[in-house]
Design a protein that fits this description.
195 residues; mainly alpha; Single alpha-helices involved in coiled-coils or other helix-helix interfaces; 2 domains; 9 helices
Length: 195
Amino acid sequence: MRLDQPRIEPTTPEDWNDDSRPILQAVEQNNGFIHNIFLTLARHPKLLKRWSVFGNHVLGGSTLPARERELLILRTGYLCGSGYEWAQHVAIARRSAVTDDEIRRLAAGPTAGEWSADDRVLLEAADELVSDTFISGPTWSSLAQRWNEQQLMDIVFTVGQYVLVSMALNSFGVQIEDRVERFPPELFVDGQFPS
């Protein structure tokens, strides 16, 4: 996390309108609370409404299995220095069969030992997309041995979505909620994530 204070303050219920209220109430009903990302994006209700459709596809409607989706999201959040994104998705990754050892290893990336060949190439794709906005020929060929055309598209859009989200979170100064675990703790020096 690059900012220790928000540049754009989260909204309160008094700020909500007919575009933002149903989305925020649905988030609260599903999670028991409303994450700061949603409260902040509600400052731009029409953007929140339209972004939520795409975000819901990537997170809930993607053709990728949940575990692999979360590997991509966490690696992307790490590469983008988004402590908020990382912290939120650690819990989701755990529910998606990503182990704590794998979560720790994601910081080291695809070259860390113990990744399966399939996981390694997925992480290579994330690294290439974040650094070059392009998946190289060898990486694409390796991915295509396992993933179908729609899944290949979802790989690119998953990384792209979370680069975009990381840019917004970092630039707006969206703060990690106190209730959200910072794991592994060694990544959060004085509560801050590496940038």
